[in-house]
Each structure stands twice: as C-alpha cells, then as structure tokens.
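Title: Prediction job returns without error message
Component: structure pipeline
Severity: low
Priority: P3
Assignee: unassigned

Description:
Job completed but the reporter wants confirmation the result is attached to the right record. Sequence as submitted:
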Amino acid sequence: MSPVPRIFDRRTVRQRRDRAAARAEGVADMFGDFAARLIERLDDTTRRFSRALDLGGRGVVARQLRAREIAVVAGDLSARMAALSGAPALALDEEFLPFAPASFDLVIAPLALHWVNDLPGALIQIRRALAPGGLFLASLPLLGTLAELRAALLDAEAELSGGAAARVSPFPDLRDCAGLLQRAGFHLPVADSEEISVLYAEPAALLRDLRDAGESNALAARSRRIPPRALFPAALAALPRVNGRIKVTIRLAVLTGWAPD
C-alpha cells in the first residue's frame, strides 16, 4: 500500500485545538448554527437513534443530541476540547478510532474531519463503528471556503515579498465526497452543499474566530518564517465588503451514509 500523504501536522492540530478549547465559547453561536444545520438532517428519517458518537463537536453537538434524548460519547483529538461535551468524553485520533464494531447507531462529525490525513481510512473506521443500519452524518469545508481570504493573502504576500506561502488549507471538491463515502462502504451515499456568507464589521475578528475555533494553519508544509508585519492588515483590507462589512464564504459539504444493514 502507498503511504498516506502527510498534508497536515496532526500534532499542531491537537495543540491548536487544546488552546482553542479555552476560547470555544466565543465561536459557540456560529458553530452551533453549523452543527444545527447538520443535526436537522435527523428529522428527514423515521429512524430513531439511541447511541451516538460525536466527533469534534466542541461541546455544542453533544448538547443538541442529548436534547433529543440520545446517549452521546464525545471524542476529539484534543482532550480539552472533548471535555467541553461532558462525560463520557475521550481524546482520540480520528485515524485510529478505539471502538469495537457496531458500537453506535449514529456518528456525527461536524467540521471535524478536514484535518485528517487519511480521510478514506477514517471513514472506513467510522463505518465499522456503526451498527448495521446506522447513520453517518458529517460536514466538511469545500473548495471555495475562505476563497476571499486565500486570494487576499496570496496577493498581499506576493506584493510584499515577491512570493507566497500556503496559509489556508486545501479543501475537497463536492464531487469527490460521495465517492469517498462509497469507497468506505457506506450505502446510499449522498453529498450536497450549502454556501454561507459571513460578514464581519471588524476585519481582525475573522482571524480571531479562526484562532478561537482551532482552525489556524496546520499544514505540514507551512512556512515557519515570521510573516511580514504588513501581511495580514493588507490582506484584510483587500477583502470584499458588503454594506461596509468584510465578507467571507464558507461552502459546506453535508455527507450522509448508512452502514450496510
């Protein structure tokens, strides 16, 4: 087998999420909205669930599932982030899930799998952790997410230093997502998309939200050099505006798949 490409520095991902756990309340409303869009998909099925695994829900998803009287185990690469969901919660690696087959009838991964190097392998393990007929729901940022910020950073850094480093993660295309589910052995795989525009009155608040969500740059090939001091102010100033507020786009893939029954 070919080795899995190391796109992301998983140690850095964990460290960023450890630090973000102390500030997660600052982005709880936004993340809660993203999570609710995913959990509402449960209303589209008559199936009732009793045992759920919440992967990376930052405390928000577990509360919403327990409100539906579903027992929840929460897991996160960061022990501190997992603890936000309340017990039972554990630190885990999404690429090496520590659960027996058929442990859950529902697995929800809201914006939690885009820092995984071996995404096909993680999906296979999730499918194995599901009982026959169990449901997998996930959201992933798609190609086009933060496109405005990516372009502004590239242009500003090229202007300031004559080159540019990768500072925004690569994201998958929607057409690849359903194929990943099918490859992992899910039945009835579906991938659809939602596009959300987020407006900020204060440009620097965008960078704070990314930091507070643990979503700062964790690319394995990221530059370790200190960026030019003028880089981020210049990039933020170049972002498009709507009624005086800067605008960034978030494109989400919503993935649905069933474990073979």
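Comment from assignee: result matches the submitted record. The chain has nine helices and eight strands.
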